[in-house]
Amino acid sequence: MSVAENLARIQKQIVISALKAGRNPASVRLIAVTKNVSAARAMESVAAGVADLGENRVQELCNKYPAVAGARWHMIGHLQSNKVKYIIGKVTLVHSLDRWSLALEINRRSQEAGLVTPVLVQVNVAGESTKFGLPVDEVTDFVTEAAGLPGVSIQGLMTIAPLVENPEEVRPVFRRLKQMAEGLKEIPGVKMEQLSMGMTNDFQVAVEEGSTMVRIGTAIFGSRH
Ligand SMILES: *Cc1c(COP(=O)(O)O)cnc(C)c1O
């Protein structure tokens, strides 16, 4: 299957899942995850209509950034503080804000550049020790504090669900993230409009549960090696 065929199939699945949940399909944005994919393949997805690309490593993002024209770039992976300087002004959204030191660094570098960087707070909903993300019980305090940083604009939450065979098993994870976002809306200076959740294995369930951004790699580009 070509990238364009894969995209067409996925877009259709997103529409079906959104409608099943009574949602507007246009409220779900597809982010094509291009990690381990060549710039040429990434460009194929842009040519097929994808507007948003995601990378989980800074170096790969910076390498492809000049080569792929006309895309919005998302930083979706764990971000080291010493690499923040390379992506400020390049990325449209950082999905992986998961600690205070990183919030301070994004704030500092953004202010130096005269920018405000949109971010999502990554939550480790399932409490997996192998995953990054804030523990659920720390999110409210963190968001309240980070809302006071002028160089950072909180747009919502992100999570990576546990890898399971049957995506129904992770439905409660997505539901929980949505509930958390509802509870955080009242915090001054915070937008809770974006929920980044859902990958190749579970995006349909995530869309049914309110995802506004699905991050999909394998189903578009094939499996990575
Ligand atoms: C790799 C990756 C994805 C995409 O995963 P697939 O299963 O290939 O769709 C999504 N989000 C993050 C944070 C990733 O690192």
Write up what this structure looks like.
This protein is α/β, with parallel strands linked by helices and 225 residues long. It has one domain (3-221): TIM Barrel (Alpha-Beta Barrel). Helices cover 37% and strands 20% of the residues. The protein is built from 9 helices and 9 strands. Strands 1, 2, 3, 4, 5, 6, 7, 8 and 9 form a 9-stranded parallel sheet that branches. Helix 2 (39-47) links the parallel strand 1 (29-33) and strand 2 (52-55). The radius of gyration is 17 Å and the shape is globular. It starts with a helix and ends with a helix. The model has no long low-confidence stretch (mean pLDDT 97). Residues 33, 35, 56, 76-77, 160, 199-201, 215-219 line the site of pyridoxal-5'-phosphate.
Which key phrases capture this entry?
Ala_racemase_N, alpha/beta, 9 strands, Pyridoxal phosphate homeostasis protein, pyridoxal phosphate binding, TIM Barrel, pyridoxal phosphate, 20% strand, single chain, 9-stranded parallel β-sheet, binds pyridoxal-5'-phosphate, 225 residues, PLP-binding_barrel
Short overview:
The chain has 225 residues and is an alpha/beta fold. It has helices at 3-20, 39-47, 58-64, 84-87, 100-112, 139-146, 171-184, 203-208, 218-221, and strands spanning 29-33, 52-55, 72-75, 91-97, 117-124, 134-135, 152-158, 194-196, 213-216.
Helix count from the secondary structure assignment = 9
- Chain oligomer state: single chain
Query: How many domain modules?
Result: 1
Q: Would you give the CATH topology?
A: TIM Barrel
Let me know the number of strands: 9
Low-confidence stretches: none
Shape: globular
Q: Please summarize the sheet with the most strands.
A: 9 strands, parallel
Radius of gyration (CA) equals: 17 Å
Function: Pyridoxal 5'-phosphate (PLP)-binding protein, which is involved in PLP homeostasis.
Cofactor: pyridoxal 5'-phosphate
Domain Alanine racemase N-terminal: 25-224
Protein name: Pyridoxal phosphate homeostasis protein
